[in-house]
């Protein structure tokens, strides 16, 4: 069990059950101090130093159909100055969000190409986390500007273009997918 915990910084109860090991072993290891409980069904070695993005890995394990988006995705791509205190997650319609006490979760609903296009998977503490790419994230910021603020969307556009994390063509493609092409057009023309 401890060898598996060294290989996977975040260990799920389901991972242990899949190996045919009784889950009571996890309880015993936690009581003896050899494992630390990080949340419901999540464990790690007590000496493991979590990364700054660990909350995204935890949420990804609990919501496998979700995609990290908006302010959380901006943080992943190091765009702008936003430091969200909650994890922003895109879910398809009808998918029930996981009940998580910590970290706080902010869910937005997306459907069609909005939820399936522009996803890249990054590895955080041994977990492959789906995150929207930089261009899709900027387009989403314009789509959800009433939730996060137009100033955040404009900052994201400027930073993404200045740091060359997204080209104008990529931004335009995702603006059309997110149906915000008319909103973004004047800003894209100003940046280009």
Describe the structure in your own words:
With 192 residues, the protein is α+β, with helices and mostly antiparallel strands. It folds into two domains: 2-44, no CATH class; 54-191, Beta Polymerase, domain 2 (2-Layer Sandwich). 46% of the residues lie in helices and 17% in strands. The chain has eleven helices and eight strands. The protein has helices at residues 2-7, 13-18, 24-31, 54-62, 70-76, 113-116, 134-143, 145-148, 150-162, 168-177, 181-191, and strands spanning 11-12, 36-39, 42-44, 67-68, 87-91, 105-109, 119-124, 127-132. A three-stranded antiparallel sheet has the order 1-3-2. It has a three-stranded mixed sheet with strand order 4-5-6. It has a two-stranded antiparallel sheet with strand order 7-8. α5 runs antiparallel to α7 (134-143) and α10 (168-177) runs antiparallel to α11. The protein is elongated, with a radius of gyration of 19 Å. It starts with a helix and ends with a helix. 37% of the residues are buried. The mean pLDDT is 91.
Mean pLDDT: 91
User: What is the architecture of the largest domain at the second tier of CATH?
Assistant: 2-Layer Sandwich
Low-confidence stretches: none
The shape is elongated
The spatial strand order of the largest sheet comes to 1-3-2
Gap from first CA to last CA:
54 Å
Tally of strands: 8
Q: What is the makeup of the main sheet? A: 3 strands, antiparallel
Helical segment count:
11
Structural class: alpha+beta
Beta-strand proportion: 15-25%
The CATH C-level name of the largest domain is Alpha Beta
Q: Strand-and-helix sequence, N→C?
A: HEHHEEHEHEEHEEHHHHH
Helix percentage range: 40-55%
- At the fold tier of CATH, the topology name of the largest domain is Beta Polymerase, domain 2
| Radius of gyration from CA coordinates | 19 Å
- Number of self-contained structural domains: 2
């Amino acid at each position: 069990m401890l060898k598996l915990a060294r290989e996977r910084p975040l260990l799920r109860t389901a991972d242990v059950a899949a190996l045919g090991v009784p889950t009571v072993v996890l309880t015993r290891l936690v009581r003896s101090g050899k494992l630390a409980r990080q949340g419901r069904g999540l464990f790690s070695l007590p000496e493991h130093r979590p990364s700054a993005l660990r909350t995204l890995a935890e949420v990804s394990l609990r919501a496998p159909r979700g995609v990290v988006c908006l302010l959380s995705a901006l943080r992943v791509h190091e765009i702008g100055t936003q430091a969200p205190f909650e994890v922003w997650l895109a879910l398809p319609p009808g998918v029930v969000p996981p009940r998580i006490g910590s970290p706080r979760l902010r869910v937005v609903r997306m459907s069609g190409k909005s939820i399936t296009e522009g996803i890249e998977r990054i590895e955080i503490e041994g977990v492959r986390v789906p995150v929207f790419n930089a261009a899709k994230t900027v387009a989403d910021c314009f789509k959800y500007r009433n939730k996060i603020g137009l100033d955040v969307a404009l900052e994201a556009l400027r930073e993404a273009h200045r740091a060359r994390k997204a080209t104008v063509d990529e931004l335009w493609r995702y603006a059309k997918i997110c149906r915000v092409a008319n909103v973004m057009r004047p800003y894209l023309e100003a940046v280009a």
